[in-house]
Amino acid sequence: MPSRKALIRRPGPRLTEGLVTHIEREPVDAGLALEQWGAYADALRAHGWETVEVDPADDCPDAVFVEDAVVMFRNVALVTRPGADSRRPEIAAVEEAVARLGCSVNRIREPGTLDGGDVLKIGDTVYVGRGGRTNAEGVRQLRAAFEPVGARVVAVPVSKVLHLKSAVTALPDGTVIGHPPLVDTPSAFGRFLPVPEEAGSHVVLLGGRKLLMAASAPRSAELFADLGYEPVQVDISEFEKLEGCVTCLSVRLRDLYS
User: Fold this and answer.
1) Which fold has domain 4-254?
2) The dihedral formed by the CA atoms of 182, 117, 212 and 4, expressed in degrees to the nearest 10
3) Residues assigned a catalytic role
4) Which residue, 4, 73, 124, 221, has most beta carbons within 10 Å?
């Protein structure tokens, strides 16, 4: 069976201080957030993913959003340089974790900035959002890291949400899904399917036709079920208050040695 590992990181004691840029701040229940994180990790394991817990970064409120610290393409791990200065201490332990897993490690260097949430992979195509957290030099360095191993890198604008994957993700057949008011250029993607809720834009592919998604998007879940997919819904309400979604809370690694 192919190796399927997922990096996760436990929410820290300062979670409630996490950055908010495109939505109004709401109080976050840290205890409930920890419960929800545990249920999210359980859902990954229940569907065949081995979870690998990255060492905590308790001084970093946003460290639970581990996706932003590293981008994977095949066996290459590109350790990011987050666009928010306060998030840069998060990356050291993530780099150590992917190195222990045997990945080939590259890094985004100054003056480049890149958040992993700005990177959407569909087969060998890597879409990268150029916006508030990822700059042109970050896109250039991502291209330099991944194109030699077979990626086709496509830059797209992001202005209405925090990250590209705050606006769009993709179904197993490569169809890009998104809530139209939040997508800058739907025409940038080959196939685009509108969804009725913002949270319905975010799915994690668990394997087969199973889609991990937020419980806050029931109409989108119904749409996906009508298309023959199997939604696996988890409550991540406390992370949504911090502009988080199901993709942010893990980094999925497949077939590292293929």
Assistant:
1) L-arginine/glycine Amidinotransferase; Chain A (3.75.10)
2) 160
3) 163, 248
4) 221
